[in-house]
Amino acid sequence: MSDIILETRGLTKRYGGVHALEDANFILRAGEHVAVVGDNGAGKSTFVRQITAVEQKSAGQVFFEGREVNFEDPLQAREAGIETVFQTLALADDLDVPSNLFLGRELYKFRLGPFSILDRKTMRDRTMDALKTTAVKIPNVDNPIRNMSGGQRQCVAIARTAAFASKLVIMDEPTAALGVQETGQVENIIRGLKERGVPMILISHNLRQVFDLVDRIVVFRRGRIVASLNKDETDGNDIVSYITGVKGLGAEAA
Amino acid sequence: MAEPTHGLGGLKYDPAKRTRAPEWNVFAALVLIVLIFEVLNRLNGGSFLFNMRDNVDALFNQQRLDIMILQVAIIGVIALGVTQVIIIGGIDLSSGSVVGATAMIVMSFAQTALVNGNPNPKAIFGDWAMDLPVIVPIVVGLACGLFAGLLNGLLIAYTRIPPFIATLGVMVSARGAARWWSNGQPVSFPTESYGKLANGDLLGTLTFGTLSWEGQNPAVIFVVLAVLFHCIMVYTVYGKRSYAIGSNEAAARMSGINVDRHKVLVYTIAGLLAAVAAILLTSKNLTAQAGMGVMYELDAIAMAVIGGVSLAGGRGSILGTVLGAAIFSVIISGFTSVKLDAYYQEMVKGAIIVGAVALDQWRQRSRLRG
Q1: Residue A171 domain-assigned (yes or no)
Q2: How far is CA B253 from the centre of its chain?
Q3: Nearest-neighbour CA in chain A from B87: distance (Å)
Q4: Of the listed ranges A21-30, A158-167, B25-34, B146-155, the one predicted with least confidence
Q5: Minimum Cα–Cα distance from B239: chain A residue
């Protein structure tokens, strides 16, 4: 049991009367890459938001590294070692690359509450290292990222996640807005995480990508987990029938 | 100079390719506007900047420079705070009224008991509040600014009222408080030491007369505060978070920045700076009136916007605002120098503000396109 990184039991989220997520039981093992798929509104992003505490769950439990956790905000989740790339890019457009990489966890030369002096040189050096290890190409890290292409910005977001990734990485549609070449770059970063043994949850609409990258596929439908299949035991058509509800009705107990 | 060239995945980092700081454009505009007014004045046989009178031995037109510097200094102090508020994506309409209310309250604690041997005719409090040490009105004034700024910040951060509405409410209430304080009567006759705050000669005293000129204090205090907040915005996490919040508030929140607490801090600092302006203004004029600081909030916002601070948040700098303040003041003095009617001045001032915002909008759109 000790190789279970993340487990959710009965995780539920309601917005008023809408049951966005119901009774989600989910397990992620050490080094495992799992894809979360499903139609729009199936509860994939809601599921991730409860784990990372962007929203507070309505019911259920989350276990991280064998202990029950109740994160109050995304920072706590991040400090515990869960790094997330959000669907809406969590980047500040007017800041440069180092500032974005270290947003909310700046390094200091001198601590003085809100007026602590930033250690800009070290942050810049570490940014360079991080970009090198993730093979992300950014022509000028000192420019505001506003001036970069969508792909470059997404790479910054992912490099941030990968650079700080310690225990678990969650990516919410990391390649949704990217071109072919940029998608390839992101997928390489993900393979790098696999090699480093960092477990990952990937939300994606792209089944080709899912079958390329992950070990196991979890299907969401109408707020419930309807299937959890090893990549070798299934195929695209099978997954699509779970997504559309042809298969797996009443299979919530999975 | 020797910034090394970094090879990064085949692409070279070239320091020369860095985008030029927008402050240079503002500086160029300042020089251009000064030149235009100089030429206009020369056409009339005068000069905008230089001394043309034979009976005065000076290179520059000292009187005009003094007026400009004073205007930049006092409203500029407010603009320093307003700049930070705009950078986090907010707005502060209350600063002018906070100046008014703070002026009235401060002056009540700065009064002197005897005016030419007679009891102070404008006394607000009894004898206990007369001839207090100068630190008392300063602390009271800063406390007023702190309170107003804190109120703005708490309203905006925790009730989620839009900044425009919250600070509008504080603006109206603070003006009301200024009028209520002494039933609309001016408060006058401060102690000598309070009068020295703005009329004194700080650098001259510190350097034993080397850098002495009259009435320099507001300018010196403005420069010190500008340098201080420039460093804070550039080198500390306070600045980094301010730009992050103005740039993408949701991202800042997700990154674990305590956005609400930071907003309260920024509005509080803006309130404190408005109080500093009130202290300088009352000390300069040796009196306080309920109408003090009317429209200062818009002048301060204009200085920031002219200096390249984007009303959308996330962009701009203290240096830009200092240059914007200089442009603003040069334009006002320039119109006076070419004897443009005061009514036209107000109209043109309005047009400048609208023009600066339009320019900012245009820059944003062209950035999205390109």
Answers
A1: yes
A2: 29
A3: 11
A4: A158-167
A5: A115
